[in-house]
């Protein structure tokens, strides 16, 4: 029997340690999260449409909300031309708030974004708030009367969505806004359905089930235009609040690779973004197109970080 | 009737020779993963996810494999708790308290059988509970806000006093150390890092798996080295496996009560299996007439937490499937698996994807039967793995501990921290301070604090909010009773605290 165990363990180890392959994607989180998803899907499509000759190896490098992966890429993989790393709004948010142990956004090269998860504001089905204006007016009248729940810690992207929205709607006292951070969108939804919080912010894909079941009512989606499948949910823009908050999905690469290598990644990511496979993945997972590449994307990242820093200073997260 | 028809459909999908084979492999691997200190259900399942992808399994087969591993690990955790005094995973922590003393008394076989049957009862009833009540139970989660959760955690900590077998102050000290360690990392309510000293690896806080492996496994290795194996846990002999019917009958009440408590703890997101087994143990102890023998090898002290943690494992699937809220680390990994398979758990899962839900339930039932067979008649196989000579086992435990911890984050920092915890565990053992409350502090401290602070944000700092709902008030009353009962009972019974020696130190 003991040989059985040994055989089983050996088999496990061999499957886990697959032969080293050329292209590698680091997912700075455990299997199954958004970054892992980005790595696996982009990697799979790159192989399927023939951009790379072999499978893209996915390495999960969890820790500090992406900080462990980020600092490792900066410090010891800085010139690896075969490496790319999954990133999202959470990456830039934490960079902006100096949560990566002093690392800054200019220590890597930002390749692009090929999809985004639109932010959404929902209330419980029996809530008195019928639209975004009702909600904003209630906050303006008495900020203590409206508690927002979200799936990220204070200062995280879900919190920032609320603050940016209220800021654009003309309510500037960010510190007065009540926000409770929970572990993930679904957790935040249960608090809202249970009546402990009055409104909830999250990514559309994580709360689709609750919207369809009628447990919560979406009052605004934070995208440029209405989202297919949710045509009856108005955008914040339509309701007079000019805010777009997409949780984008993209990648970055190490800083010290050659310009040709960088350009190669930009081209490859663009082709993945235009592929039918990616369009199908987006449709299945509630993502919207959000395409920015190369220099355009780098400019977006810098603007994004500046904006987040400004809000973070207001709420005292940054000195 | 509809439930039965659905279940039949589930079985018709889940029972194929291939999935049965997967279930058997999953149960076997899961039991080993659970039994090995350092590898718990959550990293076991996480390690297997990429493998199931590379094998190209379809959704149902992948679910069968991974839920078998999940349940298998819940069963397996008890084996090393009983034989080595090292919990194989965190929910099996409570099983060490009575399981190991039983093994020391030469009743290892009985302890394994009782705990195996208790695991089966807990998991089976919880799976039935999941099947019948899941859609209604989802509503329970809506009733629990920050105030209610805080009261629930208070209940756990208030009953801690009754746990230290000889000195309550030492148990309290240990819990305080645990709570202190829990404060390390990002503070969710302000977004500021605390006690991280600029160290990136401390941003996420201290993983309780690091603490548990350090405090139990590494400390045990130190102890073994010091005593040259004399009265160390390692090397307990196992007699013939007979089914101790009388003992099973005697503990059946404990199993059922443990199941009930564990299931409820599992259903509440944010409580989970560890709290389930803890509360099951404490409830059993306070209800028992033979309180004094708890901690010294009472079979009820083995049956209750094992039924509790397996029932909680089943219960934790309720919020995971119906709300998409994982109730424990392992269900978080399973949730991730479902999402990658394009199955979104949530209120609509039962109506939109019944084939997934019911084949999952069917596979849980299959896994449970396979596990009972593996864990009672065939328990010797697993015991053999652990009862190799000390000169093999000791380096083996050390290696698995290091590999398991390294697999968490892939950083050497956690391994150093684990060694640090090992030293702490050794010192605490020398000072006769229990280590279980430290783990509870780490495990529950963060959630307890987060909920208190959320409650304060919601109520604008009004502390009476903590007592504002009937559920919260009920939990507070239970907490106060749990805290006071041991003090008064002791006086009423005029029974001085038991001899202040740890059974592990002077027996054998």
From TrEMBL, chain A:
User: Does the keyword field hold Signal?
Assistant: yes
Keyword line: Signal
Annotated signal peptide? 1-22
Gene3D superfamilies of this UniProt entry? Answer: Bordetella uptake gene, domain 1 (3.40.190.150), Periplasmic binding protein-like II (3.40.190.10)
Extract the Pfam families matched here. TctC
Write down the InterPro entries for this protein, in alphabetical order.
Answer: BUG, Bug_dom1
- Highest taxon, organism lineage: Bacteria
Report the sequence similarity comment from the record.
Belongs to the UPF0065 (bug) family.
Q: What is this protein called?
A: Tripartite tricarboxylate transporter substrate-binding protein
Q: Which organism is it from?
A: Paracoccus spongiarum
Automatic annotation (TrEMBL), chain B:
The protein's matches in InterPro entries, at most eight in alphabetical order, are given as: DUF112_TM (IPR002823)
UniProt keyword list: Membrane, Transmembrane, Transmembrane helix
Indicate whether NADP appears among the record's keywords: no
Which is a Pfam family this sequence falls into? TctA
Q: Does the keyword Membrane apply?
A: yes
Per UniProt, residues of the DUF112 domain are 20-440
- The source's domain of life comes to Bacteria
Where are its TM segments located? 7-33, 45-71, 111-134, 140-162, 169-186, 206-225, 254-281, 323-344, 356-376, 388-409, 421-445, 465-489
Q: What is this protein called?
A: Tripartite tricarboxylate transporter permease
Species for this entry? Paracoccus spongiarum
């Amino acid at each position: 029997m003991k040989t059985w165990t040994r055989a089983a363990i050996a088999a496990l180890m061999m499957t886990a340690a697959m032969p080293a392959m050329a292209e590698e994607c680091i997912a700075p989180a455990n299997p199954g999260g958004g970054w892992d998803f980005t790595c696996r899907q982009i990697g799979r499509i790159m192989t399927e449409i023939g951009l790379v000759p072999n499978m893209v190896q996915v390495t999960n490098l969890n820790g500090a909300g992406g900080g462990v992966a980020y600092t490792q890429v900066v410090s010891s993989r800085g010139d690896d031309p075969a490496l790319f790393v999954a990133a999202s709004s959470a990456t830039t948010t934490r960079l902006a708030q100096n949560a990566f142990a002093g690392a800054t956004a200019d220590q890597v090269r930002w390749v692009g974004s090929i999809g985004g998860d639109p932010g959404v504001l929902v209330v419980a089905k029996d809530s008195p708030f019928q639209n975004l204006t009702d909600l904003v007016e209630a906050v303006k009248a008495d900020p203590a009367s409206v508690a927002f729940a979200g799936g990220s810690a204070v200062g995280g992207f879900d919190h920032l969505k609320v603050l940016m929205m209220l800021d654009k709607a003309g309510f500037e006292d960010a510190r007065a806004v009540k926000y409770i951070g929970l572990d993930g969108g679904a957790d935040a939804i249960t608090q809202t359905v249970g009546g402990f919080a009055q409104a909830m912010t999250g990514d559309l894909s994580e709360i689709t089930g609750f919207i369809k079941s009628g447990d919560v009512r979406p009052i605004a989606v934070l995208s440029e235009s209405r989202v297919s499948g949710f045509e009856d949910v108005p955008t914040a823009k339509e309701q007079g609040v000019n805010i777009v908050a997409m949780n984008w999905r993209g990648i970055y690469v190490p800083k010290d690779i050659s310009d040709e290598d960088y350009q190669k990644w930009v081209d490859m990511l663009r082709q993945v973004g235009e592929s039918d496979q990616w369009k199908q993945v987006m449709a299945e997972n509630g993502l919207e197109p959000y395409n920015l590449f190369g220099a355009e994307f780098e400019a977006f990242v810098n603007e994004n970080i500046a904006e987040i820093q400004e809000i973070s200073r207001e709420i005292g997260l940054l000195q | 009737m509809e439930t039965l028809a659905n279940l039949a459909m589930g079985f018709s999908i889940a029972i194929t020779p291939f999935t049965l084979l997967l279930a058997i492999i999953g149960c076997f691997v899961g039991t080993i993963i659970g039994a090995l200190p350092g590898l718990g259900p959550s990293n076991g399942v996480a390690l297997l996810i990429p493998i199931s992808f590379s094998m190209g399994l379809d959704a149902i087969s992948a679910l069968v494999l991974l839920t078998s591993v999940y349940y298998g690990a819940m069963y397996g955790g008890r084996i090393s708790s009983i034989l080595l005094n090292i919990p194989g995973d965190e929910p099996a922590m409570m099983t060490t308290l009575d399981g190991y003393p039983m093994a020391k008394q030469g009743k290892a076989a009985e302890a394994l059988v009782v705990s195996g049957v208790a695991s089966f009862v807990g998991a089976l009833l919880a799976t039935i509970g999941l099947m019948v009540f899941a859609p209604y139970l989802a509503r329970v989660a809506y009733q629990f806000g920050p105030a209610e959760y805080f009261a629930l955690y208070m209940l756990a900590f208030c009953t801690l006093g009754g746990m230290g077998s000889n000195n309550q102050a030492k148990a309290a000290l240990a819990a305080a150390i645990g709570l202190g360690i829990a404060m390390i990392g990002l503070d969710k309510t302000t977004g500021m890092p605390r006690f991280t000293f600029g160290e990136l690896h401390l941003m996420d806080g201290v993983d309780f798996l690091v603490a548990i492996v350090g405090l139990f496994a590494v400390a045990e290795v130190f102890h073994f080295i010091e005593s040259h194996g004399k009265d160390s846990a390692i090397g307990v002999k196992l007699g013939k496996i007979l089914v101790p019917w009388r003992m099973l009958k005697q503990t059946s009440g404990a199993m059922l009560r443990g199941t009930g408590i564990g299931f409820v703890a599992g259903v509440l997101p944010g409580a989970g299996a560890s709290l389930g087994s803890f509360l099951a143990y404490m409830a059993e102890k306070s209800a028992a007439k033979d309180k004094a023998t708890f901690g010294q090898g009472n079979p009820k002290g083995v049956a209750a937490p094992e039924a509790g943690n397996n029932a909680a494992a089943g219960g934790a699937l309720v919020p995971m499937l119906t709300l998409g809220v994982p109730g424990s680390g392992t269900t978080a990994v399973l949730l991730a698996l479902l999402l990658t398979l394009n199955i979104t758990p949530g209120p609509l899962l039962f109506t939109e994807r019944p084939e997934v839900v019911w084949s999952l339930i069917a596979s849980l039932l299959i896994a449970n039967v396979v596990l009972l067979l593996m864990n009672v008649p065939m328990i010797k196989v697993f015991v053999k793995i652990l009862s190799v000579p000390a000169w093999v086992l000791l380096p083996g435990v050390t290696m698995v501990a290091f590999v398991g911890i390294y697999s968490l984050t892939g950083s050497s920092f956690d391994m150093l921290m684990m060694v640090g915890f090992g030293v702490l565990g050794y010192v605490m053992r020398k000072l006769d301070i229990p280590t279980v409350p430290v783990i509870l502090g780490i495990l529950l401290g963060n959630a307890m604090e987060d909920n208190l602070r959320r409650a304060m944000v919601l109520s604008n700092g009004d502390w009476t909010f903590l007592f504002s709902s009937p559920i919260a008030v009920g939990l507070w009353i239970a907490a106060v009773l749990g805290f006071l009962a041991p003090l008064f009972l002791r006086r009423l019974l005029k029974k001085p605290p038991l001899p202040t020696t740890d059974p592990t130190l002077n027996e054998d």
